[in-house]
Design a protein that fits this description.
about 230 residues, about 45% helix, Rossmann fold, eight-stranded mixed β-sheet, alpha/beta
Length: about 230
C-alpha cells in the first residue's frame, strides 16, 4: 500500500525535490503551496502519483480546508513533512537583532508547523504507523550554536523542542516524530555555495523512510544523528 505523504511548501526548493524523489519511489505525494496554481503546476511537472493541494501554513482556514480535502479524498495521512521555513538572518547577533525579525522567524519556522500539525494530526492518527517530520537545520543544534543567524537558529531550536514534545505525547499512538536537517543547501533561502538540492532533499527523505524500530524523537542529517 502506497504511503500518502503531504509536504508543505512543495512547489519549489527542497520541498519540490523531496516530493519528486518520493513520487519516483511510488508514494502518493500531496504537493502543497500557498497558491493553488503553483501547487498544480509543480504536481503536474513532478508526475507520478503527485497531487496538488492549496495550503497556506499561515492561514488556519486554509489548513483546515486542506485537512478536510485529505479526509474526503484519502481518509488518512501516513507522513506529514513540515517543510515551510524562512528568515535566514545571517550576521544578526542576539544582542542586536531586530526582535520583530525574530518574531517573524518564530512564526514561519515554528508556528506554521505547529498549527499545521494540530490540524492534520487526526488524519495522521488514522494511518497504521503515522509519522511527522519537521524540517529543521544544523544551525538549531544547541551544542553547535553560535552567535550568528540568531533569529533563525532560535526558531529552529524551538521547532526541535516541538519535535521532542510531540514525540513524547504521540509515542503511545505509534506515531513517530523526528527533526531532519538538509544541511546547507543551494536554495533561495540557503543561497549560493550550498550543496545540491537533491542531496539536501535526500537527507530529509532518509528520515521520512526510517523504520519504526528507529524509535521516535530523533534529529538527523545525512543519515547520522545530530546533537540536540
Amino acid at each position: 500500500m502506497a504511503r500518502i505523504i503531504l509536504i508543505t511548501g512543495a512547489n519549489r526548493g527542497l520541498g519540490r525535490e523531496l516530493a519528486a524523489q518520493l513520487a519516483a519511489d511510488g508514494d502518493t505525494v500531496l504537493v502543497t503551496a500557498r497558491d493553488a496554481e503553483a501547487a498544480a503546476k509543480a504536481a503536474a511537472e513532478i508526475g507520478g502519483d503527485a497531487h496538488p493541494i492549496q495550503l497556506d501554513t499561515s492561514d488556519q482556514e486554509s489548513i483546515e480546508a486542506a485537512a478536510q480535502q485529505i479526509a474526503d479524498e484519502y481518509g488518512r495521512l501516513d507522513v506529514l513533512v513540515n517543510n515551510v521555513g524562512g528568515i535566514f538572518d545571517y550576521g544578526q547577533q542576539p544582542s542586536s537583532v531586530e526582535l520583530a525579525k525574530a518574531q517573524d522567524a518564530l512564526e514561519i519556522n515554528l508556528f506554521s508547523a505547529w498549527r499545521t500539525t494540530q490540524a492534520l494530526l487526526p488524519m495522521v492518527r488514522k494511518a497504521p504507523a503515522g509519522r511527522i517530520v519537521n524540517v529543521s537545520s544544523e544551525a538549531a543544534s544547541l551544542e553547535r550554536m553560535g552567535a550568528h543567524t540568531s533569529a533563525y537558529s532560535v526558531s529552529k531550536a524551538a521547532l526541535n523542542a516541538l519535535t521532542r514534545s510531540l514525540a513524547a505525547e504521540l509515542a503511545a499512538d505509534a506515531i513517530t516524530v523526528h527533526s531532519a536537517s538538509p544541511g546547507w543547501t543551494a536554495t533561495d533561502l540557503g543561497g549560493e555555495g550550498g550543496r545540491p538540492v537533491a542531496e539536501g532533499a535526500a537527507s530529509i527523505k532518509h528520515v521520512v523512510n526510517l523504520p519504526a524500530e528507529a524509535g521516535t524523537g530523533h534529529y538527523y542529517q545525512d543519515e547520522q544523528p545530530l546533537p540536540w
